[in-house]
Design brief:
By secondary structure, the chain is mostly helical. The protein has one domain: Tetratricopeptide repeat domain (Serine Threonine Protein Phosphatase 5, Tetratricopeptide repeat, Alpha Horseshoe). Helices cover about 70% and strands about 0% of the residues. It is globular. It starts with 12 loop residues before the first helix and ends with a helix.
Length: about 100
């Protein structure tokens, strides 16, 4: 499988495929299975930034669980403080809980 982006997090082929599957599930509104897959991936690698970011996206955009979304984006920013995408997404969801 070739990726259309640079694999800066050195994800395995399996991780890349699982992320693609989870994103496809979100697009198809199969949110429970997307959540289950992402949480399983997180159990295998609790500091995987793409998984944490996707969980933030799932909880914020699709499930409207803004506090949970912010929690995942905070975790991304603990690991990678310069992650502008996570910082912007967190700011977007903080508006709903403050």
């Amino acid at each position: 499988m070739s990726t259309p982006f640079e694999n800066i997090y050195d994800l395995s082929e399996s991780q890349l495929q699982d992320l693609e599957n989870a994103e496809e599930m979100m697009l198809k509104n199969d949110l429970g299975n997307a959540e289950e897959l992402l949480l399983e991936m997180l159990r295998n690698d609790e500091n995987c930034i793409p998984v944490l970011s996707n969980l933030g996206h799932l909880y914020g955009r699709y499930l409207s669980e803004f506090e949970t979304a912010v929690k995942y984006y905070n975790k991304v920013l603990e690991i990678e403080p310069d992650n502008a995408w996570a910082r912007d997404a967190r700011r977007r969801y903080l508006r709903y809980i403050e």
